[in-house]
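Table 4 source record.
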Amino acid sequence: MPKAKPKHIDKPQNILIPPSYTTDWGKAYCGDSIELLSQLPNDSVNLVMTSPPFALQRRKEYGNKDQSEYIGWLSEFAKLVLKKLKPDGSFVLDLGGAYRKGIPARSLYNFRIPIHFCDDLGFYLAEDFYWFNPSKLPSPIEWVNKRKIRAKDAVNTVWWFGKTEYPKADVTKVLTEYSDRMKKLLEDPDKFYDPKKRPSGHDIGKGFGKNNNGAIPSNLLQIPNSESNGSYMSSCKSISVKRHPARFPAKLPEFFIRFLTEPGDLVVDIFAGSNTTGYVAEKEQREWISFDSEIDYVAASAFRFLEKNASVDTLRDVYESIKSGHSIKLSAYRSQMRLLREKSASYEA
């Protein structure tokens, strides 16, 4: 399929500072997300997909609020998100659970958030999702590893909010592979079931045996978070820079970007970290904008958009340029590397 022409380059977005870097489809900014988000036009964003620092008792290097003040803190961002979303726009929020301080009882902060957002701010909860990470290490250590009185915490709540009751969505864009049994049923429906009304009240008709090229996904998303050798990780390691410690896997934003947006739509991440959301949006030909307050993380996130075999000199140059406050076009680096490879190939020929 031919690549659609990006529109964001010429589209006014009112942000007063230059981006740290740009790509074919997006812009990454370093700064206060409240200030930057407030500068976007109202009713302009199709999807805000983000994972804020969680409300954990132990302080993290990327910044996290105490549970007692967390909902109020996050609400300030949510109020702005509501204004910036288009009428059919969505806000997807990934939140990890937590225990109360010093006792093996769960905090309810991540469940109070959707109640507050809907009752007090005006959002609609379109659907609740649950991200199961089978590769997550056992935690919390005190209750799981040491005292062995709790199971490991491996599920995040992912709240899908709409600005109105009918946010844009198309579940056919995220169909899953049929089970082996369903594949056999599709080959010979008459062998596996009789069309009739079940005791549950479901009316199973002939249409149940139709091949729709995939199954409707559930709201339980099983996605391992086990990346260890991707280009972002290897690039950070090659020039000895700090990797963001709380990255979510690309499959998570990919699901919601495909589900809730179309090519050319605008996706925003207000706590971008290593900018996985922007990276996926780029691949899916969505315009994107990312915000993060830590320049080290913003600079390293640029590695996601460079060639996989970028040289150490290129990686270091990009990283240091962004850290120094320069606004760079990553497409220029990619073009330069392609020319160098073509020259090298011509000399070898």
